[in-house]
Design a protein that fits this description.
Organism: Undibacterium umbellatum
Keywords: Cell outer membrane, Membrane, Receptor, Signal, TonB box, Transmembrane, Transmembrane beta strand, Transport
Biased composition (Polar residues): 509-521
Protein name: TonB-dependent receptor
Number of helices: 6
Helix content: under 10%
Structural class: mainly beta
CATH topology: Maltoporin, Chain A
Strand content: over 45%
Shape: globular
CATH class: Mainly Beta
Distance between the termini: 65 Å
CATH architecture: Beta Barrel
Oligomer: single chain
Number of domains: 1
Membrane topology: Multi-pass membrane protein
Length: 746
Amino acid sequence: MPTLVSSNKFRLSYLSVQTFLKLGVSGLGSSILLWTTHLHAADLPAKETSTVQTVEVSGPGATAQRKNDTAAKIIVNAAELMQYGDTQLSSVLKRQPGVSVVGNELRMRGLGSGYTQILLNGDTVAPGFSIDSIAPELIERVEILRTTTAEFSAQAVAGTINIILKKGVNSARKDFKIGIAHGENNWNPSLALEVADKNGGFSYSVTSTLSKTGYESLPQVIESIYDTSGELKTLRLMQQKNIADVWRFGLSPRLNWNLENGDTLSWQSFFDYYGNLNGGSDYEATVKGDATQYPDNNYLASMHTAILRTDLNWAHRLDADSKLNAKLGLNYNHREVDYNFFGYPSPRDQAFNRHVISNAAESSVSSSGKYLSRFRDDHSLALGWDAALTRRTEARLQFDRAANSNAVGEPLVEDYRANVRRIAMFAQDEWDVTSRLQAYLGMRWEGLNTETTGRSMVPVQTRSSVWSPVMQLLWKLPEQEKDQLRFVLSRTYKAPTPRSLVPRRYTANDDNGPTNPDYQGNPQLLPELAWGADLAYESYFAKNSMFSVSAYVKRVQYVTVQNLYEQKMVEKNLDEQKSVWITSPYNHGNAKVMGIEMDAKFALQNFLPAAPPLEVRLNAARNWSKLDAIPGADNRLADQVPFTANLGMDYKRSERQSFGVNFNLQTGGNVQATSDLRTYTGVSRNLDVYGLWKLENKTQLRLSINNLLHQDVLQATEYNGPDKHTMRATRTPASATIRLQFEKSL
């Protein structure tokens, strides 16, 4: 078995990871066959154009609206959300300019780990919130803002994605959708119903969804350990199996009243409940060296999550030139998890059992509002507030039973409570400086106070406040009606999450090591602060067509990096002492972030009149970053995605038939996470297609196929320490998903 160690420094690459996996798989076919046989799963007024103005990209006049808005944004409307028949929002947004998806985490400018702000109806979501918990049928539009505005929270170093739920309509309608999909060895049905009506000054809409999502994945893992001379000491091959079934129910009602005095009142709620039953197994074949503590293990887990958000909005017109909007919101999230891990030592005997019962709940009350006023014909002023009180509690009870023993150790009980108080005030002005120059000026002050207490921790209180100025300029070039420039200067920040502040240890049940460490929070974490500048050129060369190229640069202070260390610990419930690898976040140094982005939309007939009616979408983004606290050529910030690109085409054959295709590319590569730890992520290529047939009686049929290339997912981690060299590489096979959906307006 050849080693992958160079003369000076081990470097991960696509070739080395792929070769490593192929050698392990093909060269040891008998071992793989052995794994397979042992697989098992435990079973305003006139010019009220504030920065939150709604724009629909694909509708008539949408391109002109994007052209004239002082604060640039991209809007993904309901039709685009449903175009490919996606059941997950992340699948839709990965096709948008500058947006990438890692797992189910949305990233703008390639940055994850909290740098991209996710909002729901303009409000921040709870930590750990998954955008895929919201079915696309519940969403009216998604706003993508590359930079911050004073009205929204400034926790948007990379940008903001604002999800707007469906509202009332001008006419009655009843829409019904039923679909069936097959992918990852599972049949997944879905059902959606939307009802809306209007009677005088009252209107309502109710959207509900019910779906089942299942998957089966078979990751293959190779782990190797070398000594300081480069000699292979340990080689382990692992075949994993993960299966899951997720049932989800979503409901989004909205009521609107137009009162006699001209006021409007609206109430909107969002309820989502899902149950997740999942299990898996891991069988290890030790080719050389020692096996892990539990070379044969499996797990079974169930999770139940409920999310409830409700908002009451009031709009009051004070006079012809001013208006007051106010909102009161209540939010509640609750999660319960029951987890069992069974680890069999070698030889296989009575298993070590770890049973964990945990729950987390978060409740909050919020108030926000703004006063809008038009004055001197060329200013639109907005003053506002945004405040919230949030309480998060988490409890965890762990029981361990040693292998070959019926005695259960002393339970490990952990809990913590975090109270977060947030208050913000903002002012913003949209100013028509000249007929060709528009300016947006904003200032936001935001303060955070977090108090954390727990059973096994010293009480911690952190306070922070940030002033966030923002300036956006839109200059329509002289003697040009089609071309314009945008410039933005802003200050943003990223606050630490409760999970990263609480010094609780999240453990790896088996094979703890530098490439698979435990995680522990740090109560001393500070917010990261960033100054950024954006410059963009836009050309609107034809109707509903545009071309844009932009560049950005940011400087981030107090960057959060990971500290990887080895610690001697005593497992109280097992009365054993062992060496444990732990990673913990801390603030260290600064970072530079920069990038360029291109976005184009046009009809092919603009250039070739004889061409078929083909609409083309093309976008690409290249991102760079560098941390001064971590050595190495690949010291990118937060596993930044270097490059994303999309090429999409829509063909309307007739009024009743249309087809489309989209190719998505997302690169990965090496990242120097710490001075000793490197990670690698393979290239992702996705090809999606759809067809839409409009039948009689307001009925249509949609067929879509996602991930036609079904490219395997490659990931690897490498630790190069003073006493050993460890690599862990994973290949996860992927599959295509075909979906058929029947849609009817009743």
